[in-house]
Design brief:
Number of domains: 2
CATH topology of the largest domain: Aspartate Aminotransferase, domain 2
Shape: globular
CATH class of the largest domain: Alpha Beta
Strand order of the largest sheet: 2-8-7-6-5-3-4
Oligomer: single chain
Radius of gyration: 22 Å
CATH architecture of the largest domain: 3-Layer(aba) Sandwich
Number of strands: 13
Largest sheet: 7 strands, mixed
Length: 405
């Protein structure tokens, strides 16, 4: 065929099914921030610290080891030394019985959730996501051909509302505690009720515990997988990205029911073959340092939480119509509601380009602001006290301008 004289066929596009998948919001906010380089970020969910010094030392030592182990494929589920350390951590810190589950090391807990969605869902199967949900969970369900079912069950999650949403195609219920985007730590009684609900209906309980170390209030973190008899239907997801400051290292792990192990191996082998071995050495060093290493950072982060609460309370004291939907007791997030003629991404663009502060819209998490109101997720994990003070000042000034004050 001569391209100068004949019509060429159209270049193929992405499969139409991808059109139904939610577009990721973080890259769009990052693009806005490139246009305003001095913008301060209350958007992405990261902490401001890096990993323990032992992590880099372990990597450096591993690179000097004679022989080729790091250069060759390793076991599909993870190297034995790391799996043993994870088993000890889950038994000691979370009271999970690692012998009742299979352990799987993944490139972050997001990858673990995606693999679980691929294994659990046939086209049209449903996963219940209490609102607000984490957008990557909804995306993973859609990518697997499933249907995310958002359920307004309250920020503290009413199990009865979840029960009312169960249908013949429901395969799982997801919980996140401590919560993203709410910062809510769900009580043990609530999580246990949801776990038993799943058991009664033959569903999986997917428990996202990426923020397990981040409980700042009176309600402690609790793992549903520690409930007696839960190993056969509970999927527990963990990450080193947050407490250990290793977001870019892409390392996480999951405890999964044994009956899913063979199917998960198919996904893991296809996508990753094996977890990166150098990153596994880093993870082993981090877990060896343990949560005792994390505690000073977590205490400092609790101060940033108090700084957020104080700034919002002071703004309300000045007569500004602004408040947090709930007082966040975990993770490093807060949901801010205020009067505004703008909402969603038009508001986010205005905040970045005109006011130099980045946040995420509540709509990305399934929330619907009331008419004349806006909802934002604020992440205070990356900024020090001075940076957070400046970011909140910019944000609250923008709120005042939007409300005509």
């Amino acid at each position: 065929m001569d391209p100068s004289t004949d019509t060429m066929p159209a270049v193929p596009a992405a499969a139409p099914r991808l059109e139904a998948v939610i577009a990721p919001v973080i890259p769009r906010v990052a693009a806005l921030m490139q246009r305003r380089p001095d913008a301060l970020s209350l958007a992405q969910g990261m902490v401001g610290w890096g990993p323990p010094a032992a992590v880099r030392a372990a990597v450096a030592a591993a690179l000097e080891e004679p022989g080729p182990p790091l250069d060759r494929y390793g076991p599909m589920a993870g190297d034995p030394e790391l799996l043993e350390a994870i088993g000890r951590e889950l038994l000691g810190q979370r009271q999970l019985d690692p012998h009742g589950s299979q352990l799987l090391v993944t490139a972050g807990s997001n990858m673990a959730f995606n693999a679980i969605a691929q294994v659990l869902l046939s086209p049209g199967d449903q996963v219940i996501l209490p609102v607000p949900y984490y957008f990557n969970h909804a995306m993973a369900v859609q990518l697997a051909g499933g249907v995310p079912v958002p359920v307004s069950a309250g920020l503290l999650v009413d199990p009865e509302r979840l029960a009312a949403a169960i249908g013949p195609r429901t395969r799982a219920i997801v919980t996140i505690s401590p919560g993203n985007p709410s910062g809510v730590v769900l009580p043990e009684a609530t999580l246990a009720a949801i776990n038993r609900l799943c058991a009664r209906h033959g569903l999986f309980h997917i428990s996202d515990e990426a923020y397990a170390a981040f409980s700042h209030g009176s309600v402690p973190h609790w793992s549903p997988g520690s409930l007696a008899g839960s190993a056969g239907h509970t999927i527990s997801l963990y990450s080193l990205s947050k407490a250990y400051g290793m977001a870019g290292w892409r390392i996480g792990y999951a405890a999964v029911p044994a009956q899913l192990a063979e199917a998960l191996a198919k996904v893991q082998d296809t996508v990753l073959i094996c977890p990166p071995r150098i990153t596994q050495r880093a993870a082993l060093a981090a877990l060896t340092a343990g949560e005792a290493w994390c505690q000073p950072h977590l205490r400092e982060l609790a101060e940033r939480r108090r700084q957020l609460l104080a700034a919002v309370a002071a703004a309300r004291g000045r007569g500004l119509d602004v408040d947090l939907l709930v007082e966040p007791d975990g993770a490093f997030y807060g949901l801010l509601e205020f009067a505004s003629p703008l909402a969603g991404e038009p508001l986010i663009e205005r905040l970045v380009l005109e006011h130099g502060v980045a946040t995420l819209p509540g709509e990305s998490f399934g929330l619907s602001p009331r008419p004349g109101r806006a909802l934002l997720r604020l992440s205070y994990g990356m900024l020090d006290a001075t940076g957070l003070e400046q970011a909140l000042m910019r944000l609250l000034r923008a709120v005042a301008a939007l409300s005509g004050r």
